[in-house]
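Project channel, design review

CF: Before we commit to the Fontibacillus phaseoli constructs, I'd like one complete example in the thread so the newer folks can see what an input/output pair looks like. Taking Adapter protein MecA 1/2.
RD: sounds good, go ahead.
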Amino acid sequence: MRIERLGQDKIRIFLTFDDLSERGIQKEDMWQEIPKVHDLFTEMMDQAYNEVGFDATGPLAVEVFALPAQGMVVIVTRGKYDHHHFGVGSPYEDELPEEVYEMEVTLEQSDTILYSFDDFEVLIEAAHVLRHMIDEAGRLYKYNGKWVLRLEPDELDEGRIPALIAVLAEFGEATSVTPAMLDEYGDVIMADRAIDVICSHFKRQD
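CF: and here is what came back for Adapter protein MecA 1/2:
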């Protein structure tokens, strides 16, 4: 579990599939109101307070993004009640949660594959290994000082995706950034055919 502070009232939490399986949670469980998911959220908020000083009291907006190869990204924003639903005179007035965490959860799923690389030389090595698996795919970004390779599944041979991810995991690191954040905050270095472009312009180290 990795926690980053995005602002005074917002944090991002990256959960790997190992984080989920260690707690007996399947990816599909995140869509359900079950005790072990609630326990996981409580654990995340405790860790967020201890690591980055994020106080999770009050209403929270929770966005969960499921990524195919990386795990899950959970973005938590501290906010205010929507008094149309909760508040004086509301039909829900007596149903206000008594717990510390009051959540409004949004769930999204993305099939985009995203891996980051600290060193461009390592990315060159990975590209040469991947070249025989990928014909004309890949977009390369620079984001937070790292090189981020983005692959869309419709550009790939579905049968090769597990092997492709295995190579990416060997050379790079699954990243918690979402495609939307990359588009907004990242710098596009190679807009398309990134693997082919890298291999054409950069040789492998001997």
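RD: helpful, thanks. The two ends are 36 Å apart (CA to CA).
CF: Residues 139 and 192 are 5 Å apart (CA to CA).
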